[in-house]
Design a protein that fits this description.
Elements lengths: L7 H9 L10 E4 L4 H4 L3 H16 L5 E4 L9 H17 L4 E2 L25 H20 L39 E4 L21 E4 L10
Parallel strand pairs: 1-2, 2-3
Antiparallel strand pairs: 4-5
Helix pairs in contact: 1-3, 3-4
């Protein structure tokens, strides 16, 4: 939508009364350069521009702004102050704002028509069309909903090494009972007295059984 010579107040009325057949994917608002002459000072132009933006946002949610195309008929300093005011109002409402003045150097006269206000069809308009397309693409990329990432449950921790218990020192072993195969038959020795007779104490037919104690040394390292 564009009304020749319209200021921010005129564009606001146009937006409120516009009939749009379907919801647009994005709405690009260019700061009104006509307010360079319609407004007495930058603050007044900023107030009109803010009301214009509020009217647009009341109808559509996806909105971004660009600066206005500079003119050859106004001083560079004046245009810079108005550009900054429009940028400040846009940032106040949280609306993305893209500068375009640097793409139109004032010493390249081929970019403008002979009146020094409107862009030339063969040079200036090609640059403007490309900028609007580029900023719209970037805006839609940033405003697109991010895909939901499902959180994955963390598996339980499993140790890669099995702990090993080390016991130092000797363990006392209980004496084991002798096995039958370990028994040894020991006969008592006989002693003879001076008479040559054997001592009856040692000549007893009794046998004494002893066993070898098997000792096992167990160590654990």
């Amino acid at each position: 939508m564009s009304t020749p010579g319209a200021s921010a107040a005129d564009l606001r009325l146009e937006v409120l009364n516009a009939v749009i057949p379907r919801e647009p994917d994005a709405v690009c608002i260019m700061a009104p350069s006509n307010n360079l002459t319609a407004s007495r000072h930058p603050e007044e132009a900023g107030q009109e521009f803010e009301r214009y933006l509020l009217a647009v946002c009341s109808r559509w949610s996806k909105v971004f702004c660009t600066g206005f195309v500079p003119r050859l008929t106004e001083s560079r300093e004046k245009q810079t102050v108005f550009q900054q005011e429009f940028h400040r109002r846009s940032a106040k409402l949280g609306i993305p704002y893209y500068e375009i003045a640097d793409y139109f150097p004032l010493d390249d006269l081929d970019l403008w028509c002979p009146d020094g206000i409107h862009l030339s069809d063969n040079h200036g308009m090609h640059i403007l069309n490309h900028l609007i397309w580029m900023f719209a693409y970037e805006f839609m990329e940033l405003s697109a909903p991010k895909p939901l990432v499902q959180s994955q449950a963390t598996p339980p921790y499993k140790s890669r090494f099995v702990p090993r218990v080390v016991v130092k020192g000797e363990e006392r072993s209980r004496p084991s009972s002798p096995l039958p195969t370990e028994w040894t038959l020991v006969r008592s020795s006989r002693k003879r007295n001076l008479s040559g007779e054997s001592d009856c104490l040692f000549d007893s037919p009794k046998k004494r059984v002893v066993h070898h104690q098997v000792r096992e040394a167990c160590s654990y390292v």
